[in-house]
Amino acid sequence: MPSYPLRVLVLKTTKLGETDIIVTLLAVDGRQVRAVAKGMRKPTSRFASRLQPFSVVDLLLHTGRNLEIVSEAECVSTHSRLREDFDRSAAASVVANVLDKISLEGQVEERLFALADATLDSMETAPIDALPLLVVAFLVKAMAMHGYRPRLDTCVSCTCVVTDARTFSLDAGGVLCPDCDRAQPGALRMGPGTRDLLATLMMSTMADAAALDVPPDARIAAFSLMQAFVTYHLPTKLKALDFYSREICR
Ligand SMILES: [Zn+2]
After folding, report:
1. Residues 71, 90 within the same domain
2. Which end of the chain is more exposed for a tag (fewer CB within 10 A), N or C?
3. What's the start-to-end Cα distance of the chain, in Å?
4. Residue 184 CA, ligand 1 centroid: distance in Å
5. What is the pLDDT of residues 207-247, one digit of tens each?
6. Residue 153 Cα, ligand 1 centroid: separation in angstroms?
7. Cα(229) to centroid of ligand 1, in Å?
8. Residue 97 shares a structural domain with residue 211
9. Are 149 and 226 in the same domain?
10. Mean pLDDT value of segment 52-72
């Protein structure tokens, strides 16, 4: 059976039978791929150390009856610090969890892999305090790629320019001007500066986002808004995002 090479990011691993593992992967073109790594849970497995969550790996795959089958795995970037440190691991788990839910088999989105790789690179080296902002930056950018770009400059209802946005409509996906806010009670309150911070993160590289000097309560306000936005629009439970929220909002 012909094999083919594919660069992937490992999103998660799931046990299969006694010794095998199913790996859920984000391919370099943004598709989700699921593959079986046979014998990965045996002590002698050559895959066990290479197919860890957050690792970027060059695989040789062949097509099985139901799933792809891993025949070779060569590490490109282990991102090992993300597994060794609690805070880094919790932040990176949000990235893997969201990517698992927004990537689809057969759906190409080439920017997604580059975003994921850059985010994980930054999460490995950033100061611990910068991790929540990297999570927020990732969520804003990933949701935009997924078709949910938050509208931050003009009112999502009447399209007037909003300079000091204080409310955000989850349903419509953007800020509201004061007039539309009065007409649509129920929109989320935004703290001062949250809109500007999200707009900055939308345009920043991950390295720039890691270097921003933002007070803790402003980071948490931006995170809380994006958590609500993601939870509203993705019809699935995001365990890692819920866990991260409890950790940083303590
Ligand atoms: Zn309006």
Report:
1. no
2. C
3. 53
4. 10
5. 999 999 999 999 999 999 999 999 999 989 999 999 999 99
6. 11
7. 19
8. yes
9. yes
10. 94
